[in-house]
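Subject: complex prediction, re-run

Hi both,

The earlier run crashed halfway through, so I resubmitted it with identical inputs.
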Amino acid sequence: MIDTAPIDAIRPLLSWLDMAGVAVFAVSGALAAARAKQTIVTFAFFAAITGIGGGTLRDLLIGAPVFWVGRSDYLAVCLIAAAAVWVLRADRWKLASLLWFDAIGMAAYAVIGAAKAHSLGVPPLPSIVMGVLTASFGGIIRDVLAGVPSILLRREIYVSAAALGSASYIVLVELGADSFVAGGIGFAAGFGLRALAIGRGLALPGYRDGGD
Amino acid sequence: MIDTAPIDAIRPLLSWLDMAGVAVFAVSGALAAARAKQTIVTFAFFAAITGIGGGTLRDLLIGAPVFWVGRSDYLAVCLIAAAAVWVLRADRWKLASLLWFDAIGMAAYAVIGAAKAHSLGVPPLPSIVMGVLTASFGGIIRDVLAGVPSILLRREIYVSAAALGSASYIVLVELGADSFVAGGIGFAAGFGLRALAIGRGLALPGYRDGGD
Amino acid sequence: MIDTAPIDAIRPLLSWLDMAGVAVFAVSGALAAARAKQTIVTFAFFAAITGIGGGTLRDLLIGAPVFWVGRSDYLAVCLIAAAAVWVLRADRWKLASLLWFDAIGMAAYAVIGAAKAHSLGVPPLPSIVMGVLTASFGGIIRDVLAGVPSILLRREIYVSAAALGSASYIVLVELGADSFVAGGIGFAAGFGLRALAIGRGLALPGYRDGGD
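This time it finished cleanly. Structure:
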């Protein structure tokens, strides 16, 4: 199970964000399968990998029990998300609505990943990296398996927003802030930057683009 | 080492299936290298990744010691398989013979992976997922590294057969069946479905293929 | 942290090689991002994955705490390497200079990876594999994420040199050699073979190239 014992103050928020994050990411994985005209089995596989992949890597790296192995609800959420996309033909929804859900999941996971690592004694810099990995790795694996260019290779701001969110949380907690406040600010910072990227096409300059 | 202590009843079958599964999957990895006209070193790398990759992921996820790290025989089997494919020019064998060997390995691993996880206290749904991962992940990594479309993206029934096999085993054991009987039925179910896929070209419908 | 306690005799050499290896591999990751005209965030991601990816896999497989999670310096080195490549426009350096740095890192990591696993009780054959993985896996992940053919699929001698280096170290230590001497010989063997590959285009024959 996810170890949130040392961060009880923000447990209700975290629990809600945690399951919501899995669901949102699972939907995005199933949508990738829908775009590739895949089968229901691939829907389920992509939903699970995208939904729980980032947190799995985080838990392996920090030496914690992998959060979904000891219980059934996280996997069940992924399977339900895959079935829902298949049945509801969610790929006909407006893409924008999904982008916003994904932004919420990303911002939540950036804070949750950093908070879990930090609460287990991981130093600040690796904790920030855990937040970034939790928020982005599921999507990266999904893209590699689907054979499409990963989010890493697009210039749109995504990983940067995750980094801003987890760094904000860690810096504030290190400065003595209440973890609930730090979590809220970290979430808002990550979500806000990602919202600018979605709404205004904000992107990072590529190498040499801005230098000469 | 692979922890089969809690499932002593099916240990002889499991031991035989286990090493046979590594060998069969290692051969399929070496054949992928042969098709790409690779070197003997790549043969060995692909054989090892395909042979032991699925079980490695399972062990990392359930927190067990990785089964091949504490001993030399599993790696030795992979190296022998790579050398055998190189020397015997096994890529000229009929493809069908390999498909059948692979089906045996897949069905065996689906049961073994689920049984190992379940015997260590993992709940039913994650245990079934462990069976599917053990049976399919080695081949997925092999395909990604080789740059060919992974089995995940083909509609042929493969992952589904692994899911049927591991789910049959877990459901029967949960219902109180003898683990030897459950293992045999799980193996037969997974192998049988895969055999139908090979023999009759059975495939799953892609998204929207069957719906409109 | 990296557990070198049982190999104190070569600790100074190992520490130097270890950080140098991370830096050199991180630079090669950032250069891959530069070639793809990526953003500074992708530079950092590729530098970290390439710099610490191999050692991360090794530590997960042998069940040791992942070496960079409990401290900040390894990640800091990766970020500095990424920033340095961005600012110094290192992709305009002669490619040859990078190849030689990379060869040093590869040979060092092949010995370090094997030595760490062996010192924790892993048998000889899996220890050699750990050396090969530590030396090559970061680069493999980098190539897969970047969507370019991985070093595994090129015939140039690279993985073979890592295998020669780690095997030399393990065989010598098993025969009773001093670990410092064995480490030096292993490094020289791996680096020497890689140097021949770079300097003279030494490559392995592909399957059937040399056989008919």
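Chain C has one domain: 8-200.

- K.
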